[in-house]
Amino acid sequence: MSTYTKQEVKQLVDGTLAWDTVHQMISMPKDADRYKLYMEVIQEKLSYKHKVIMALGPHLNLAIRDGDEEIHAFCDCGKDFGHYKGNWKLNANIYVRDTAEKMDQVYPRLMAPDTTWQVYREYSCPDCGTMLDIEAPTPWYMCMHDVQPDLKTFFEWVGIPAPKKI
Amino acid sequence: MNDLNNPVEVLGIDAGGTMTDTFFVRADGSFVVGKAQSDADEAKAVLTSSVDALAHWGRTIEDTYPEMVTCVFSGTAMLNRVVGRKGLRTGLITSKGFEDFHRMGRAIQCYLGYAFEDRLHLNSHKYDESLVHIHDTRGVTERIDCKGAVVIPVRVEEATQAAKELVDQGVKAIAISLLSSYLNPAHEHAVRDAVEKVIKDSGSDIPVFASVDYYPARKESHRTNTTILEAYAAEPSRKILGKLSDTMRAKGGKFDVRVMATHGGTISWKAKELARSLVSGPIGGVIGAKYLGEQLGYENIACSDIGGTSFDMALITGGNYSIHKDSEMARLVLSLPMVAMDSIGAGAGSFVRIDPYSNSLKLGPDSAGYRVGTCWPEGGLDTVSVTDCHIILGYLNPDNFLGGILKLDVERGKKCVQDQIATPMGLSLEDAAAGVIELLDLSLRQHLRAMISGKGYSPRDFVCFSYGGGGPVHAYGYTKGLGFKETIVPAWAAGFSAFGCASADFEYRYDMSVNVGITEESTDQDLEDSVDQLQSAWDTLKVKVLEEFEINGFSEKDITFTPGYSMQYLGQLNDLEIDSPLPKVKGKKDWPALVAAFDAEYARVYADAARSPELGFGITGAILRGSVETSKPAVPDEKEQGETPAAGSKTGTRKFYDRRKWVEADLYHMESLMPGNRVEGPAVIESDATTFVVPTGFATFLDKHRLFHLIETEDLTVAFNYVDA
Of B384, B408, B439, which residue sits at a domain end? Predict the structure, then answer.
């Protein structure tokens, strides 16, 4: 089994790790303390006190809320997006690209989808403005609930005690 | 010692990433091997290595080089330049609208060269940086269709503009590759001339490479990559080899340095198409095996070469290896004909780990390389390698590893194997290490068997040659029970690739795609045209072969030409390459002979019943090989001395773990054994660069050509049952 230093995991998170090492990390079975190091690296980048337990995106994490120990989704700025069993997107600002003009801003004309068939929904943080996710559904489709992690099984796999309120 | 009756004639050079080997051969076949650490200045490494080799004979470079007649170089510098993307900045001019196809890599370059598991997983796929940056790429409006007809005439003024921009941007070479140019070179030539004019007018001397002048083959990604390599990677090599050649001349050498090429021949370092020498190391061994087979009467040979990182296999059938067109090298699709080989990423230096999910041993796919394993602390490795297990079990001598260059820490190796393999698996240290060796042997044996039976042959029809640094260590393991006619280990196994390079012909091979399809409905005129198209392609290729040989002062009368072609049954996907039964063809009267030769070859390679002539025949390519006579190393031919090795050849005994128990293995010095000598296992025969392991149940004798024959002395189906029991 391979082992990696915290420095390497930090570079992995930052996207600055050399591809050869990234490739090896992908190909080999995970090292035992990867989860722990990964979470430490993310936690050190954040100013809030909640304890991070899972990354949902580059600027969005699940964390144990300081105080009541409920698991919520948090933006890097500390904005609370609600309990992890709900859909965090419902607490985000939404910008919908649903006209050809709006599509022109992101793709050259004729290289973007026809907005009567597909629109882009951009979700951003109401506090800091960071874009957290984009989805590309048909115009009538509901707001997608991307992932509902099975935290109980997850912590069994990782082999460490699960948070109390999962 | 100088010996005028027995001059040193041949020098083979194998300049690898870590070591530069030289292999000097005398007229009677006796040889010495020299080693030196590789250097960015390859000429320097070759000289150092030569000094090391010649010291065995008490000779110097200055008095040896002048009597030599042949020098063949093979090296990894060009390959490293490509892999490390450190080539010459090259501009690319292509058909307008197709500027991106080069970096799209035919949608397969993202996983070429990967282990099987990594090919399956999309998230490990990655495109390497393209050889030519998109900003150094320009499109020119033009189009030639798939029949060679002009659909849009070329706009030469766009080529002129493109060339000006590329020159201004600072490219150091320009490659041109337009769609379907192999069928009609007119557009590419027009663009080439325009680009050359711009360069001339600007007063610079940037080289220009039009694909049709170099590799006129179908499949534009392959053709374009290969043409770019000619600029990107081969130009710098030309300079390095030129320097090597000058250095050797300064020391009195009167020979011309030749380079091993992928098609199995050697070409001059001055060759126009030097990219053909991109990969040469593993090919050398196959050429050496073929040459040895010709000398000694072996027609069918299974070649096996274990290095530190890979196991390379090739088959020689009926005295010939097969050629794979459109080969893949350095994670690029290329149109270079290459000696067909199968490689797996398991070698003597592979890492050993335990898969935490299945709790079973896993070898590779990565390997320790020059860092050896955990038993060499300076290498800085913490992961166990196969070499560690060799050391623990007494296969290799820790005090004489690579001739004693490296000092090994056996205890550290033992501790690592114990902690990482033995304890987690609940095995003793020795059994864990032996399990690793058995697993490697088994995996190599399966691949070797699969390669032979997959092509419809049986090991019974083959002699197995085992060479490379690790081949002789494992020869017993990966051949046992397969039923080869014989297993042979040359006494110069470690220098076998260099020997192979030195025994290769001075031969150019040129290929050209042709489009011929003949069915029952074809007219006499179709037949006339088809045959003439083939001859016309040969004529074109002949001019190129002649041009190459003229650089080295050979004229047409010195050259033996061998025309060939690739043919297929229409509707089938694969073609077969054959030598033409006729030296020249003209008109439809010659068509039946071409077809008959193909039918016969097809029946030989596959089966008579598999032939399917009813759909007609297609010719897909014309091939022309031209060769001239060269001096080759003689195979040693010594007097047999009787079965018992001389007293001085036995150097002692060593504890050796064999069949789950420690035994005392006899140690022999490889160079001191004499033809006729027989050694019974358990024994280990050592030389500086390789180790030949003969366990219990095996014996070996050295023949008069200095080839060790490995013999199974007991019924192994019984002997190896203990493993399962």
Answer: B439
User: Residue B18: what pLDDT?
Assistant: 66
Q: Which of B578, B610, B583, B609 is nearest to B596 (CA)?
A: B578
Q: What residue of A is the nearest CA neighbor of B127? A: A19
Find chain B residues with C-beta within 8 A of A27's C-beta.
115, 117-118, 121, 124, 365
Same-domain pairing of B259 and B133: no
C-beta separation of B302 from B465 below 8 A: yes
Closest-CA distance, B115 to chain A, in angstroms, reads 10
Number of domains comprising chain B: 6
Domain membership of residue B136 as a residue range: 84-234
My answer on whether B315 and B298 are in the same domain is yes
Beta-carbon contacts of B23 under 8 Å, excluding residues fewer than 6 positions away, are B10, B11, B12, B13, B14, B31, B32, B33, B34, B53, B492, B495, B498, B499, B502
B126 touches chain A (CB under 8 A): yes
Partners of residue A26 in chain B, C-beta under 8 Å:
118, 121, 123-124
Q: How many CB atoms lie within 10 A of CB B322?
A: 15
- Asked if residue B639 belongs to a domain, the reply is no
B355 contacts on A by Cβ (under 8 Å): 29
Do B201 and B147 share a structural domain? yes
Q: Do B123 and A24 touch (CB under 8 A)?
A: no
Examine the pLDDT at B435 and tell me if it is beyond 70: yes
Contact A1 B354 (CB under 8 A): yes
Q: What is the DSSP string of B444-455?
A: HHHHHHHHHHHT
Same structural domain for residues B619 and B662? no
| Of residues B38, B37, B35, B40, the one with CA closest to residue B22 | B35
For residue B123, give how far its alpha carbon lies from the nearest alpha carbon of chain A (Å): 8
CB contacts of A1 in chain B (<8 Å) are 353-354, 356
Task: Give the end of a domain, one of B565, B600, B628.
Answer: B628
**Does residue B365 sit at the A interface (CB-CB below 8 Å)?**
yes
The residue of chain B nearest to residue A31, with distances taken between CA atoms, is B356
Q: What is the pLDDT of residues A11-27, one digit of tens each?
A: 999 999 988 888 888 88
Which ipTM value was assigned to this complex? 0.77
Residue B659 lies in a domain: yes
B124: contact with A, CB 8 A cutoff: yes
Considering the domain architecture, whether residues B136 and B29 belong to the same structural domain is answered as: no
User: From the CA of B353, how many Å to the nearest CA of chain A?
Assistant: 6
Does residue B539 lie in a domain region? yes
Mean per-residue pLDDT of chain A: 93
Q: Could you tell me the CATH number of the domain that includes residue B331?
A: 3.30.420.40
Of how many residues is chain A composed? 166
As a whole number of angstroms, the distance between CA B408 and CA B400 comes to 9
Query: How many CB pairs below 8 Å do chains A and B form together?
Result: 25
B115/A26 CB distance under 8 A? no
Q: Which two tokens stand for residue B80?
A: 């490293």
Q: How many CA atoms lie within 13 A of B27 on its CB side?
A: 10
CB-based contact A23 B121, cutoff 8 Å: no
Considering only CB atoms, B124 lies closest to which of A1, A3, A23, namely A23
pLDDT digits (tens, 9 = 90+) for B22-36: 888 887 777 788 878
Say if residue B201 is in the same domain as residue B340.
Answer: no
Residues B331 and B459 in one domain: yes
Q: CATH no. for residue B159?
A: 3.40.50
| B208 shares a domain with B111 | yes
d(CA B235, CA B338): 21
Do the beta carbons of residue B722 and residue B659 sit within 8 Å? yes
- Domain-embedded: residue B642: no
